[in-house]
Design goal:
By secondary structure, the chain is mainly beta. The chain folds into two domains: 64 residues, no CATH class; 103 residues, Jelly Rolls. 0% of the residues lie in helices and 48% in strands. Strands 6, 8, 9, 10, 12, 15 and 17 form a seven-stranded antiparallel beta sheet that branches. A five-stranded antiparallel beta sheet has the order 7-11-16-13-14, with no helix packed on it. The chain is globular.
């Protein structure tokens, strides 16, 4: 969102990340990495980092790294005011697919909602979804959203209406309900406490 991050890992990857791009690291059977701001002086830095749990069929495979600098966008017609734009970061949204590798049916999409706009975001009813207000001001089905608070939408919805008086940047997350329970401790994820 703001600033620049450098990623390096044990696969030999060395890549910078800037606004509007995606670095996707797949841990698989193991990978070590570092991420840090670019330059010697303190700089403003703001980014979104998400962890995607791998299904059993992929979690013990080889690690990998992808860099995507040209992510697809889709226009979302407004029911009121100017249209919104969504950048499909991961998975599929509004019949538009990200080039990034996924191992389960998911969506990660950044939605830019202009001031004075009302838009219905299309959802897949069999998936769970959540919506995050990253910047600005927005209301979800007439309920004000709080910045940096994830609103869990559950499943069984085909759409959700979002409105912004002043403009907003939102991030939509979603996907097929996961196959099993997950245990997390610090930055380790597993299926059982013994695995951790």
């Amino acid at each position: 969102l703001v600033g620049e991050i450098r990623h390096r890992d044990s696969l030999g990857s060395d890549a910078d990340l800037r606004r509007g791009q995606l670095n996707l690291m797949t841990a698989g059977n193991g990978i070590s990495h570092s991420e840090y701001s670019v330059g010697d002086d303190p700089i403003p830095l703001d980014a979104l980092q998400f962890w995607v749990v791998l299904p059993e069929s992929a979690r013990h495979g080889d690690g990998g790294f992808e860099r995507h600098t040209d992510l697809p966008t889709v226009e979302l017609p407004a029911t009121e005011g100017p249209d919104a734009t969504a950048t499909v970061v991961l998975g599929e949204f509004a019949a538009t697919r990200s080039p990034a590798t996924v191992h389960t049916p998911i969506v990660g999409a950044e939605v830019a909602l202009p001031a004075g706009s009302t838009v219905r975001l299309p959802l897949r009813s069999e998936w769970e979804h959540a919506l995050l207000l990253v910047e600005g001001e927005a209301a979800l089905s007439e309920h004000a959203m709080q910045r940096n608070a994830l609103v869990y939408l559950g499943d069984s919805r085909t759409e959700v209406e979002v409105t912004s008086t002043e403009g907003a940047l939102l991030f939509l997350l979603g996907g097929e309900p996961f196959e099993s329970d997950i245990v997390m401790w610090w930055n380790f994820a597993g299926r059982t406490h013994d695995e951790i």
